[in-house]
Sequence to fold (227 residues):
Amino acid sequence: MLELAPLLVSALILGLLGGGHCLGMCGGLMGALTLAIPKEQRNRRFRLLLAYNVGRILSYATAGLLIGLAGWAVANSPGAMVMRVIAALLLIAMGLYLAGWWSGLTRIEALGRGLWRYIQPVASRLLPVSSLRRALLLGALWGWLPCGLVYSTLLWSASQGNALDSALLMLAFGLGTWPVLLATGLAAERTTAILRKRGVRMAGGVLVILFGLWTLPGPHQHWLMGH
Fold:
């Protein structure tokens, strides 16, 4: 677990830095969820939103576990090197997107639209949300919304070659998205304002790009691990 700690922190930071993107993708959903809560349930809004986000993050962890099994299957094959290179390139693309320099990352979201066509009608039937169970289930379904940021992180987590590690990394990534999607009122406005500052986005993007370069297989990793 200690060896995984730096990666967990990295996944947490990826989720936090991607908060601006998450706000664009899921912010409207959160607003719709809030407005859809019946008036008599408004006093339970925070608990319903919490359940929604728990379901969403658990879906990330489930996806991490499933794709992590594939990563484990190829961990000791030539395909492991290819997966790691692709994961590194996607991280670099993610950094370019976060910094506002290139938005090509969003194109891979088309990969999940076929599945989403079947999930969305089921999710829509859960509105309006009137119970914690419905909120939890709705979040678990919305977690499969096509998202280039999630896909990139998924492939990076799978490149670790361990299904449990992959699930934990996706769990940490999901927790990193909480400040924007869960917080309400002034705290959320302040967090969003900070994450949308160009300097913060550029700095975060550069950090993710550097992380992607470090992920690329090569002698530099042996040198870094030695230090």
Remarks:
- The mean pLDDT is 80.
- The CA atoms of residues 89 and 212 lie 7 Å apart.
